[in-house]
Amino acid sequence: MKQINIKALAQELNLSVSTISKALRDSYEISDETKHRVLELAARLNYTPNPYASSLRGKKSRNIAIVIPEVADSFFSQAINGIESVAKVKGYHVLICLTHENYEHEQAILKEFQSGRVDGVLMSVSSETANGSHIQELITRDVPVVFFDRALKDVSAARIVTDDFESGYKATLHLIEQGCRHIAFLGVSSRLSISNDRMAGYRKAMEEEGLPVHETYCSASAGENYTIIREMLQRPDRPDGILASVEKLATLVYQVCAELPLAMPADVKLVCFSNLGIAAMLYPSLTTVTQPAFEMGKAAAAALLKLLEKKNTDPAGLNMVIPSELIRRGSTL
Amino acid sequence: MKQINIKALAQELNLSVSTISKALRDSYEISDETKHRVLELAARLNYTPNPYASSLRGKKSRNIAIVIPEVADSFFSQAINGIESVAKVKGYHVLICLTHENYEHEQAILKEFQSGRVDGVLMSVSSETANGSHIQELITRDVPVVFFDRALKDVSAARIVTDDFESGYKATLHLIEQGCRHIAFLGVSSRLSISNDRMAGYRKAMEEEGLPVHETYCSASAGENYTIIREMLQRPDRPDGILASVEKLATLVYQVCAELPLAMPADVKLVCFSNLGIAAMLYPSLTTVTQPAFEMGKAAAAALLKLLEKKNTDPAGLNMVIPSELIRRGSTL
DNA sequence: TTTATTTACGAAACCGGTTTCGTTATAATA
DNA sequence: TATTATAACGAAACCGGTTTCGTAAATAAA
Predict the structure, then answer these.
(1) pLDDT, tens digit (0-9, with 9 covering 90-100), for A273-330
(2) Which residues make beta-bridge pairs with B146?
(3) Engineering a disulfide at A96: which of A184, A202, A224, B96 sits with its beta carbon 3.0 to 4.6 angstroms away?
(4) Positions in chain C where some atom is under 7 Å from a protein CB
(5) Do B139 and B159 contact (CB within 8 A), yes or no?
(6) To 10 degrees, what angle do helices A193-208 and A164-177 make?
């Protein structure tokens, strides 16, 4: 089947391609009657404009990218829905790009974006990302970037985050109140603001109570993390409380506890940053720090669109901190 | 910052744009020395080709689309990873488009694809989708489509599915063996093959045992589904077994049972089609029919790429049925 | 030496919209 | 009536790569 393009419409109506283009874009130069004829024919022939042609000429793709570590995570999948909900009404398409927590992947993806493939980027950096030169490079080339959740401190871009420090602090206090004395913090990366801030909140709470801090970093590999958690819980001085900074780690704690076995919450209490809808149906039900994922996605997309629409906006003015909620459930009670 | 394009490279090296283009594409027409100079400069200036320009000229976007109802679902998020893993090695980009189980959304998305935005489409149709004219139209315009998991029977396209009938049959037999007599099937749509086939397997098992069938359709709205399930479980003749065809419904069953309260598995036993990694940590742990999501994604992407590379391939020859696995856990034992 | 090939490159058309800059009627104003 | 403004449209440049075709110089074959 032959693709119908603007030229085909022009021939059919005995008009020029420029007239068709203007009619489709509702230009004042075209009479209402002609516009009507063009629109009618376009609808009848099921005409769909070639997005690459307009992007090439107009230097605008009307695409925005979401760069995230993975989709199989309740926070990210809900954030995607939030982003998509605002992008759609503004006529933007969304490209989802996965880094799989890998720095090289992230670099390669952002490098590609220098080509003009997208007008702007929403990102949550990978746990391996140590510096933001690849992000800064993109911003230098006039592709605005908005961080959501996982931001880098050495890049000046808008950031939509939660109150990570306070959440870490409150979650730790909650564990302490429930009687924990050896509380371990499971982070994902020493470079990540979310991990650092949550850990700082944890550390403050521990130090206020004069308790020793145990900070452990996990990797992107579920297998390695399993080993780390298992060894940690097998030691004689094993923790009686765990604060896990990402959802993936909570599953492993449940698994290891079931295997050893250790009873939750009697032997070990667990709090996890998570947006899992079924947290309440786990055994025991999981105490979570739940982030406003959908709202964060919406806010991040709104910030990016503001940057795209008015170039002279100060990114720092778009920063937002949206509070998380500590939901106490069986794993700590 | 000025975008560097092929013309900039040409001026810098005192060559023509065609020579640069050929050098970058490793054409035999260009001497090794010139190629080397071009590659070196391109790397030094961080040149990234404009994908829209090549797509426009070449009529190939090297983009494939994944059209699915949602991302917040363990099956789809794992399938995405499978698709992405094969697309990446073949140099294709992946666009994820969400229908939110809405037919109009799905139609609009596919209509857009008539523009040449993507070279091919992988899709799992929405639960509202009753007929495949929008899909057929796309295929007519030479955009190949491959179904994965949720296929439409009236569209002739390659389909990568699981053994839905057998899975439904086995899951139902399992419930019967565990003593259930009033087993309800929770489907998502009477038009969907997965729902129909699973239901047919359920019906066969029930009829073989001379048991009455109870088929209920749920919608895309969690609120409505909650009401449906709650009313079903409050009736005097409430089911003592449930076979849920999608993950979202299982969560609601847990919730309703906790509220009424009904004990699982004593009062109600539950089997659900799901890929949730934490199914084993639920209370009670969830008996699942687990699909090979990652493998299905890989197979679907491989089939699509085969269609893209050799036009004359028969779609029907690419069909695959990959078996699911019934994993017996606490909710039925 | 003459002719045929090969090598290495450039000019220009092309992809399909968008936009600028005419141009020709017609209407409005002086 | 002469002049200006306006309405409605077309021709062509343009976006940045890709590809076809042509060509000059170097090399090989006759």
Answers:
(1) 999 988 999 989 999 999 999 999 999 999 999 999 876 677 778 899 999 999 999 9
(2) B122, B158
(3) B96
(4) 7-12, 14-22
(5) no
(6) 40
pLDDT tens profile A56-95: 999 899 999 999 999 989 999 999 999 999 999 999 999 9
Nucleotide closest in space to A22 (CA vs C1'): C18
User: Contacts of strand C, CB cut-off 7 Å?
Assistant: A 3, 5-7, 17-18, 21-22, 24-25, 29, 49-50, 53-54, 56-58; B 14-19, 22, 29-31, 33-34, 53, 56-57, 59, 115
Interatomic CA distance for residues B169 and B38, integer angstroms? 62
- Which tens digits make up the pLDDT trace of A281-291? 998 999 999 99
Closest-CA distance, B111 to chain A, in angstroms, reads 8
First-to-last alpha carbon distance for chain B, in angstroms, is 65
Tell me the pairing of strands A325-327 and A287-290.
antiparallel
Chain A contact probe: residue of B44, B98, B115 with most A CBs at under 10 A: B115
CB B79 within 8 A of CB B297: yes
In B, which residues are within 8 Å of A49 by CB distance? Answer: 115
Neighbouring C-beta atoms of residue B25, cutoff 10 Å: 11
CB within 8 Å of A252: residues ≥ 6 apart: A222, A225, A226, A229
In B, minimum Cα distance to A139 occurs at B1
For residues B18 and A31, what is the distance between their CA atoms, to the nearest angstrom?
Answer: 42
Q: What is the DSSP letter of B72?
A: S
First-to-final CA distance of chain A: 65
Q: In angstroms, rounded to a whole number, what is the distance separating the alpha carbons of residues A312 and A47?
A: 36
- Rounded to an integer, what distance in angstroms lies between the CA atom of residue B42 and that of residue A300? 34
- B159's tokens: 């389909």
Task: State the pTM of this model.
Answer: 0.92
Instruction: Please tell me the distance in Å from B116's CA to the nearest CA on chain A.
Output: 6
Are A96 and B93 in contact (CB < 8 Å)?
no
3-state secondary structure of B129: coil
